[in-house]
Amino acid sequence: MGNNRDEKKADLKARLIAAARAEILEHGLAGLKARAVTARAGCALGALYTAVEDLDMLVVLVNSATLQDLGRALTEAVAGASGPQAALQALAARYTDFALENRPLWLSLFEHRLPEGREFPDWHKQEHAVLLEVIVPHLAQLRPDLGSEALLLRARTTFAAAHGVVHLALQGRFVGLPMASLRAEVAALVETMTAGAMQLARG
Amino acid sequence: MGNNRDEKKADLKARLIAAARAEILEHGLAGLKARAVTARAGCALGALYTAVEDLDMLVVLVNSATLQDLGRALTEAVAGASGPQAALQALAARYTDFALENRPLWLSLFEHRLPEGREFPDWHKQEHAVLLEVIVPHLAQLRPDLGSEALLLRARTTFAAAHGVVHLALQGRFVGLPMASLRAEVAALVETMTAGAMQLARG
DNA sequence: TGTTGATATGAACATTGTTCAGAAATATCT
DNA sequence: AGATATTTCTGAACAATGTTCATATCAACA
């Protein structure tokens, strides 16, 4: 059994990720502290920096897991949709619910910043692609007039529009929607956008 | 001259706001440091806390000024519009340009958070209303079928949708639009939404 | 079992926002 | 004008934070 060392190393990393996730759930991204995470994971402060590059990278690892959960949820939501409009409605609804049910984790997906000059690793950037990939095929059906390049841009725009509505509401900003209206307004937005898309595709 | 004291006090506060604004422009909201601000304003570190409640409140004051600039820009942009569609296009375009031209200040409007438990003062929350007020009358023309309550909700949703597109792009997230496509995609979004709104109003 | 290389420890450091006792400046009173 | 009181400014000290590093500990192997 020559891998006891690697096992412990992987175990510590997993415990740190779980602890960070729990801390974010309880206190939000801004409330994530190195000391609280290591205490929760049952290791010394310095161990964090041998298991992981630094606290920011730990957040990236938590966000990576959240993104995979979200991707699964969206893929599942759209599985049995009967047409492009129903599919986009199902996606938007599931996205909204995921955000509501996992608020601090979901917010950390979009509010985490790296210090000036640092970049997110490529593998993590790529993980975001699922958010667009689930939209593209259905948007394509609504807009057969668009080329594939324009379509990808439009998918980004479509995602960002729905995302913006959810984000402002969950931030609790003055301009955001009251929580009680969020689901209905997201549905109304998608309805408006699909109606508009069909109208424009018609010429 | 019994107001020399008040004058100096107001002057220090103004210098601090200007310094904070400049620091945010140069280094972003996350790069705003109490020591850098006070050095720039030409006062001691502690003076900040006699002129202003704390660093967060200083950000609120900067944001307040930015919000007024933005309000002026939007009001101006929509002044000579020939119809609701043109008005909404003009608003969205001006909003996008303002964000691009004042990126760090505009980002600080939406990324500044107060520590858990604290609330923004009411007067500052109210300042955000202009972002919705400029939309409502034109949206009302597109959707005469909606009551005034639904209309206000729809204005929040409409704003949030356009805002979301700009925000994700300016954050430089993977799912955000490339800068070069931002203006065109915002226009396309507004076109889609107005077309959809007219279609839905028609019954 | 002793040696070696990796890992964990937690005290120490640097950088923050914030406070506070004393100094300086300003207003008020006689 | 001079004395007193009040407000404001100063910057050293403090607390909270992320990160590092010399040292101790541990696991693999000869």
Structure description:
Chains A, B: Keywords: DNA-binding, Transcription, Transcription regulation. The structure is a homodimer of 203-residue chains. Chain A has two domains: 1-52; 55-202, Tetracycline Repressor, domain 2 (Orthogonal Bundle), CATH 1.10.357. In chain A, 75% of the residues lie in helices and 0% in strands. Chain A has helices at 4-27, 34-41, 48-51, 55-77, 84-101, 103-111, 122-127, 129-133, 136-142, 148-171, 179-202. The radius of gyration of chain A is 20 Å and the shape is elongated. The mean pLDDT of chain A is 96. Chains A and B meet through helix 8, helix 10 and helix 11 of A and helix 10 and helix 11 of B. The first copy, chain A, binds a DNA duplex (30 and 30 nucleotides) through helix 1 and helix 3.
Write the layout of secondary structure elements.
2 copies of one chain form a homodimer.
Chain A: H1 4-27, H2 34-41, H3 48-51, H4 55-77, H5 84-101, H6 103-111, H7 122-127, H8 129-133, H9 136-142, H10 148-171, H11 179-202
The structure holds a DNA duplex (30 and 30 nucleotides).
